[in-house]
Amino acid sequence: MDPDASPGVPGPDDERPDPDARPVVPLLEPADGVPPVVDTPRALAAVVEAFGAGTGPVAVDAERASGYRYGQRTYLVQLRREDAGTALIDPVALPDLSALSDALVGVEWVLHAASQDLPGLVEQNMRPSRIFDTELAARLLGMERVGLAAVVADTLGLGLAKEHSAVDWSTRPLPAEWLRYAALDVEVLVEVRQVLAERLAEQGKAEWARQEFEAVRLAPPPAPRAEPWRRVSGLHTLREPRRLAVVRELFEARDKSARERDISPGRVLPDAAMVAAAQALPRTVGQLVALPPFAGKGTRRRAALWQSAVDRALALPDSALPSPRGPAGDGPPPPRAWAERDPAAARRLAAARAVVTGLSEHWSVPVENLLQPDLLRRLCWSPPQPADADAVAAALRAGGAREWQVELVADRLAEAFAAS
After folding, report:
1. Is 86 helix (H, G, I), strand (E, B) or coil?
2. Domain 12-218: which CATH class?
3. Which class is domain 228-320?
4. Cα-Cα-Cα-Cα dihedral sign, residues 260, 175, 163, 109
């Protein structure tokens, strides 16, 4: 389970103990012990046979090496199923797990934050027929803390340690303590699923969850960002196109080096170093390494590479410099500009946000899970004409809203548009 934070995804803070939570019983050892790592075709064949003959849903998890390696490759796959036990599989030694996936056709896979793990599992040719996402279920239930440890504590009263969540899972051999942690991550996931499913049914949200799980399962891979360098931390402090060009050139040089060396880009060159170079505009390697963020041994060793990127940016003609505004997108402008550019759209957005916030509070579902914020903004900026309930519902469906969301918000949004 990777803890890197991103919108709608649990991060390290979510795993911290809640001082107000009820006492929990520590979960320290897997019931069947820690199994050996499966890293040979023969051992994999035995796992395939055992899990194919197992019963009930299968708990699935995957570990990556985010912050250590380039990309989001999976370095350990964990599974547990009734009558099959737990399996820890090395996907580096066994990159093709299609036989295991085939053995589980029709079986429900239980994952926590499935959108994080499924892309890597697909690279191993593992594709579920259907899923149950315990993190997403917790969100739909309005649980305040949705990290795995918090959900396990809430549903089962068990304490799940998370001290190894951010380690380098590309390490070989994997330490015994890490393997114990990995096995525990799937130890009680099916039991958690059962409690959450009962709560969803009690709250009338079982069908909502089914639709959400299916949307996650079928979600296409995200499209590459047009200008990924614009996500560099601290970029907002730079406004001049020339300085932005320095960050862009350094970002591209860093990405190439990181990919070739299979190292996380942030370990090759920190974001702070790129911003510092853009602020200083060094003309020589000596000036570059005099900057504090470039004082590290590894950074200094590649100083010529970084200075050449700076030199390229400094030599660019004005016509080749990036715009401070960023690339033109197909979506609406930032909401802060709406009042001036389109006052009617600004009123629609305020009214629509009030509707969604009210429904969020009534149903105890986070706003972002009730309706994707970007879709709401697009609808308010360019509403259908006429903006009646049927047209609003059609626009929501076209934008990817699930049927349960359409049923909840379409009529209310149409009313809000008419009143604004």
Report:
1. strand
2. alpha beta
3. mainly alpha
4. positive
